[in-house]
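Whiteboard transcription, Tuesday session. T.W. wrote the structure tokens on the left side:
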């Protein structure tokens, strides 16, 4: 069986991992977890020699001792770590080779005896570790293909894979899926996220693809904490956790407008708040409005845009009289979540504060309807030269601009982060245009798979929508030039070149097809001439007879 060998360091200590090329991703993560001496709910990240986070998965590129990866625990349960340290043992009880399981058991027994002598009783953490070793042995004995990697993986657990075509009946997350993520999130919610990750979270270069849904909820919790919302608005941690879980639950399994998109928009908003030092320019209520609006801005999106809702006369279009049906629905779902006491992060605010926050969130989410794009941008341009942070109307327009920028900011991210998002968006677009054709509805031109290519979908959008919007925001905050405008210009160059390459390929294909037709016609003409030449003597001979 083919295997991969990965060289990496943990706290400066060299390690080596070997696993089959077809090894399940979760088993590989568990292998690295054991090497890092991490508990089952700590968050691990792997860095390449350039310092970029890379995915711990079967697609890991093999390396050498000269190009070691670096493994770090970026969020850990400090209490468990302190207890383990106080008891004088480590967590690396599993991560060597199959033949050493007996040694691990002996090690644990020896440690248990030592603790009994020193402490007088066996701590609960030791019983937990004994259970893990027993589970480990059982898996080795009963599941051959797992080898020695399956430490915490539940073998009865299925992997949720949404259908590539998102029918309405399969939109919503299953209860089992939600409960699994909820359990992981609650187990992780007390983890201390490293300062390095906290700083990384404030940058537009943040890579969402390396984080699972439960981890993403931990990062959203960090945002509320680091902006001082917990203390300023008396938000109880368990209420924030329930709010974030309900938000996760109400984002659907669709290609683009899903929970990860919610996180990306929120993370960009969070980054913009720090990059532009809005904490010193706007009060904390406005910042809370902007971050929460970003979290909720696409709740229960079905994967079909407003044009489809209106043309198909859906329930949403009828309910909201064809006026921003999706955005109105996102707002309604947000406040449906906030109406529940256990998930109302605003429940300790005064009536006036709540009224102001509700008004602000509605205003921000409705601003994400792209049919209002020009009106909002022109309004911002008109006040830009005399912009006043003490003027509420000016601040309201800025908040709408900021959520709009955050909502369509993927191209401001590194290409390896942004391009997969474009693939997801096109999949959602193509799904819609396919349904429009099946239902006999007007087909949205920029979604038609027969007319739109990957680069053509972006060049016009970047040139006429993204750049004009981003440039106006940078006129107010010049520091954003390097952070969001330069990357967007590079993206435009990238897709322009891709479009030219596709056009050249199309022309070459057309020339080849024409040449083949000409050749075929020439061969056909020659065959006819040859047939006539062969037939002439026969005809003369027949005439002579």
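and on the right, the sequence the group agreed on:
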């Amino acid at each position: 069986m083919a295997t991969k060998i990965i060289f990496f360091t943990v706290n400066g200590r060299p390690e080596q991992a070997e696993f089959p090329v077809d090894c399940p991703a979760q088993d590989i993560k568990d292998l690295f977890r054991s090497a890092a001496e991490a508990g089952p709910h700590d968050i691990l990240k792997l860095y390449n020699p350039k310092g970029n986070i890379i995915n711990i998965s079967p697609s890991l590129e093999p390396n050498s001792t000269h190009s070691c990866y670096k493994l770090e625990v970026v969020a850990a349960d400090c209490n468990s770590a302190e207890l383990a340290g106080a008891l004088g043992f480590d967590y690396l009880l599993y991560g060597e080779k199959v033949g050493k399981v007996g040694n691990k058991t002996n090690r644990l027994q020896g440690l248990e005896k030592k603790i009994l002598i020193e402490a007088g009783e066996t701590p609960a953490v030791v019983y937990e570790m004994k259970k893990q070793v027993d589970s480990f042995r059982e898996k080795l004995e009963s599941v051959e293909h797992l080898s020695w990697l399956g430490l915490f993986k539940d073998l009865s657990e299925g992997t949720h894979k949404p259908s590539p075509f998102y029918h309405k009946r399969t939109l919503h997350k299953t209860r089992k899926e939600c409960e699994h993520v909820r359990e992981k999130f609650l187990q992780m919610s007390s983890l201390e996220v490293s300062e390095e990750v906290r700083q990384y979270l404030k940058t537009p270069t943040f890579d969402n693809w390396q984080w699972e849904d439960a981890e993403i909820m931990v990062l959203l919790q960090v945002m509320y904490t680091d902006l001082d919302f917990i203390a300023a608005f008396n938000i109880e941690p368990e209420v924030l956790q329930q709010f974030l879980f309900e938000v996760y639950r109400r984002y659907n399994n669709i290609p683009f407008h899903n929970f990860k998109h919610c996180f990306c928009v929120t993370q960009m908003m969070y980054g913009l708040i720090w990059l532009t030092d809005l904490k010193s320019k706007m009060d904390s209520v406005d910042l809370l409005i902007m971050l929460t609006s970003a979290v909720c801005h696409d709740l229960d999106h079905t994967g079909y845009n407003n044009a489809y809702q209106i043309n198909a006369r859906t329930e949403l279009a009828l309910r909201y009289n064809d006026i921003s049906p999706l955005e109105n629905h996102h707002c309604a779902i947000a406040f449906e979540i906030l109406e529940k006491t256990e998930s109302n992060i605003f429940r300790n605010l005064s009536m006036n504060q709540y009224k102001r926050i509700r008004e602000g969130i509605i205003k921000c989410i409705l601003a994400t309807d792209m049919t209002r794009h020009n009106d909002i941008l022109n309004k911002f341009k008109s006040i830009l030269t005399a912009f006043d942070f003490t003027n509420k109307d000016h601040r309201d327009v800025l908040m709408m601009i900021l959520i709009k920028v955050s909502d369509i900011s993927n191209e401001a991210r590194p290409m390896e982060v942004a391009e997969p998002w474009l693939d997801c968006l096109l999949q959602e677009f193509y799904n819609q245009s396919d349904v429009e054709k099946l239902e006999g509805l007007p087909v949205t031109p920029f979604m038609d798979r027969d007319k739109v290519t990957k680069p053509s979908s972006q060049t016009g959008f970047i040139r006429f929508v993204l750049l004009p919007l981003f440039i106006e925001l940078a006129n107010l905050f010049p520091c954003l030039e390097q952070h969001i405008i330069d990357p967007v210009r590079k993206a435009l160059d990238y897709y322009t070149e891709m479009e030219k390459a596709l056009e050249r390929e199309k022309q070459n294909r057309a020339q080849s097809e024409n040449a083949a037709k000409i050749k075929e016609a020439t061969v056909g003409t020659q065959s006819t001439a040859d047939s006539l030449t062969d037939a002439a003597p026969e005809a003369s001979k027949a005439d002579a007879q």
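Someone added at the bottom: Confidence is low (pLDDT under 50) at residues 80-104, 139-169.
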